[in-house]
Amino acid sequence: MKYTGSCLCGNIQFEIIGEFESFFFCHCRSCRKDTGSAHAANLFSSTAELKWVKGEKEVRIYDHNNSGHIKGFCPRCGSALPNRQMEGTLLVVPAGSLDSDVNVTPTGHIFTGERANWDHHLEEAPSYENFLE
């Protein structure tokens, strides 16, 4: 399988060639902080290849306090980008950074003990096609 992706400003573009083994929604405090959301949505692969199409030298990596909580990002727009972890053996791809459809069903939620107190029954909130004024 081949997936394409990019950052919000388009300065950085990439391809993923291969398959994802898992797809987790992580609710840990670090993921909530670095996404500004209820959870991170990351795809994982130990075999897929990451190819930078544009802007590879611009990609920045942040390892929070050398804890292993690693985030790749665009320095221009701040978008999350793929990165290698576990001494390069694991490719972590933020699902929202992909421009291609993902045909992988989420594996599950992790670190739910750190879930935000407002992150419950969100599917019950009203839905709208656009932003309300």
The gross shape turns out to be globular
**Which percent range fits the helix content?**
under 10%
CATH class categorisation: Mainly Beta
Number of individual domains: 1
The radius of gyration computed from the alpha-carbon positions, rounded to a whole number of angstroms, is 15 Å
Instruction: Output the structural class.
Output: mainly beta
The residue ranges in which pLDDT falls below 50 over 5 or more consecutive positions are: none
Q: How is the main sheet built?
A: 5 strands, mixed
Distance between the termini: 41 Å
The number of helical runs is 1
Characterization of the model:
The chain has a single domain (2-116), classed as Beta Complex (Metal Binding Protein, Guanine Nucleotide Exchange Factor, Chain A), CATH 2.170.150. Strands 9-10-4-3-11 form a 5-stranded mixed sheet. With 133 residues, the protein is mainly beta. Helix content is 5%, strand content 36%. The protein has one helix at 29-35; strands spanning 2-6, 13-17, 22-26, 40-45, 49-54, 60-63, 70-73, 80-81, 83-85, 90-94, 108-110.
Task: Present the secondary structure layout.
Elements (H helix, E strand, L loop, with lengths): L1 E5 L6 E5 L4 E5 L2 H7 L4 E6 L3 E6 L5 E4 L6 E4 L6 E2 L1 E3 L4 E5 L13 E3 L23
Parallel strand pairs: 3-11
Antiparallel strand pairs: 1-2, 2-5, 3-4, 4-10, 6-7, 7-8, 9-10
